[in-house]
């Protein structure tokens, strides 16, 4: 939700739709969370973990990271330097993703079965979507009546509130000691980690932007063909590695490695079926991701104000999302996967088609409410179903790393293509773009008869 706020902020400062589309690539960072997810399974945050345990320790560090990134975005809200805007957007995405990795691992450890995952996934998504909807709509309402700096500072303050609540909680079972020394050490360590993350992100960004400039890339470049080629690379790498992986014995160093062992295990268990599973999860949420970043700029161009968009994204989106998430979680816990996944894909597609319908209506806040409700209901339902499905693919031995890998890879292709969304709109218009995104959601249904036959193998004893 907060990525759409950034898109509206950029649009308000005169940034073109193609560049706005490029900013969707900031969301690629969560796709690669599998690169650092094993660290969250293996290492503790000094200080915090001593008293609150591994999972809560990482959550507390991540909350501090989210708060500082939002404050930085508040004081650079003029967007005079888009590279600086991108830097702090990347840091916000990084710490938000790290928070999700820690929370997902904790969730899977607490509820390892499908029957347990349905309710807990729904509860998790309710909380997540409530917070994101409140932050997104709140930022728009404040920005429309004040300015973007105040809007970001207000949301940063709200994002910080869970930290003192966690700090006041009881120690994790098996941990203890003194609360205040643990808190002081944890905060001190966090400051050092936050500065190191910012320096690393700035260095990597400088290299990427310099490389793009040397290649002559700009908002006039048709990046879609390049993106499609890049999208094929992960599948080619996996296809080449599977013949070797499927023959590895349990004691092999690759399967025992703390860094890559969880990922080798996934391909060992599913063999060539892993390719089909990865293709399916890449397509299932693609329509939602493609529509996410450009739906709000389109709505703004239709003549709606930030306040009208903010109101639609508040109670309308929240209620529709809560109903969709609850129904999706209920279905995922009780119905067969083929039926459940199909229903989720259909409603996700209808939400995208709703934007095409909205574009041909006379501007009316009620019409905006209907389109927003359809989008958020379908998004919430498909999201809840998808979370439970991915959780069931995970080996309970590696909950954090494998879920991070699956959920990250699931959005790699969609987010790569989303960055080219602005260029697509220039060529086929908003109508064509949202029709295409809805059809992609429906296309996921074609995979279901095939993935229903895939079963993981187990170690022979």
From TrEMBL:
Transmembrane segments annotated in the record for this chain: 12-36, 57-76, 82-106, 126-143, 149-168, 180-206, 226-245, 266-287, 314-332, 339-360, 366-391, 403-426, 432-452
Where are the annotated coiled coils located?
Answer: none
Keyword annotations from UniProtKB, A to Z: Membrane, Transmembrane, Transmembrane helix, Transport
Where is it located? Answer: Membrane
InterPro entries per the UniProt record, alphabetical: AmpG_permease/AT-1, MFS_trans_sf
- Give the bilayer topology: Multi-pass membrane protein
Provide one Gene Ontology cellular component: membrane
This protein's major location comes to: membrane
**Taxonomy, superkingdom:** Bacteria
| Classification via PANTHER family | MAJOR FACILITATOR SUPERFAMILY DOMAIN-CONTAINING PROTEIN 3, SOLUTE CARRIER FAMILY 33 ACETYL-COA TRANSPORTER -RELATED
- What this protein is called in its record is Permease
Q: What is the lineage of its organism?
A: Bacteria, Pseudomonadati, Pseudomonadota, Alphaproteobacteria, Sphingomonadales
């Amino acid at each position: 939700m907060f990525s759409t706020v950034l898109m509206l902020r950029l649009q308000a400062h005169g940034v073109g739709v193609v560049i706005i589309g490029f900013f969707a690539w900031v969301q690629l960072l969560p796709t690669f969370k599998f690169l650092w997810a094993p660290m969250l399974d293996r290492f503790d945050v000094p200080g915090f973990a001593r008293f609150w345990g591994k999972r809560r320790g990482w959550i507390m560090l991540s909350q501090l990271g989210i708060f500082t990134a939002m404050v930085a975005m508040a004081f650079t809200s003029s967007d005079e330097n888009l590279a600086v805007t991108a830097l702090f957007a990347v840091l916000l995405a990084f710490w938000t993703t790290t928070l999700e990795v820690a929370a997902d691992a904790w969730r899977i450890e607490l509820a390892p079965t499908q029957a347990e995952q349905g309710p807990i996934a729904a509860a998790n998504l309710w909380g997540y979507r409530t917070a994101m909807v409140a932050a997104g709509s709140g930022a728009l309402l404040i920005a429309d009546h004040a300015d973007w700096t105040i809007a970001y500072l207000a949301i940063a303050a709200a994002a910080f509130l869970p930290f003192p609540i966690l700090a006041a909680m009881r120690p994790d079972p098996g941990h203890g000691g003194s609360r205040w020394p643990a808190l002081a050490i944890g905060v001190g360590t966090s400051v050092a980690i936050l500065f190191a993350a910012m320096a690393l992100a700035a260095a990597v960004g400088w290299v990427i932007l310099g490389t793009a400039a040397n290649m002559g890339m700009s908002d006039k470049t048709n990046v879609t063909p390049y993106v499609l080629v890049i999208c094929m690379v992960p599948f080619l790498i996996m296809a080449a590695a599977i013949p070797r992986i499927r023959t590895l014995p349990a004691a092999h160093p690759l399967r025992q490695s703390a860094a890559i062992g969880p990922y080798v295990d996934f391909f060992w268990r599913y063999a060539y079926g892993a390719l089909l599973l990865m293709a399916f999860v890449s397509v299932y949420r693609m329509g939602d991701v493609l529509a996410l970043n450009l739906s709000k700029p389109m709505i703004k161009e239709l003549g709606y104000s930030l306040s009208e968009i903010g109101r639609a994204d508040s109670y309308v989106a929240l209620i529709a999302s809560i109903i969709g998430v609850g129904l999706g979680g209920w279905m995922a816990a009780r119905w067969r996967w083929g039926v459940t996944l199909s229903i989720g894909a259909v409603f996700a597609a209808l939400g995208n088609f709703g934007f095409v319908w909205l574009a041909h209506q006379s501007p009316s806040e009620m019409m905006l409410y209907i389109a927003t409700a359809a989008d958020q209901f379908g998004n919430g339902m498909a999201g809840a179903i998808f979370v439970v499905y991915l959780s069931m693919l995970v080996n309970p031995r590696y909950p954090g790393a494998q879920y991070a890998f699956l959920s990250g890879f699931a959005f790699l292709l969609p987010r790569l293509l989303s960055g080219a969304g602005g260029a697509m709109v220039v060529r086929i218009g908003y109508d064509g773009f949202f029709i295409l995104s809805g059809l992609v959601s429906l296309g996921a249904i074609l995979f279901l008869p095939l993935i229903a036959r895939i079963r993981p193998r187990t170690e022979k004893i």
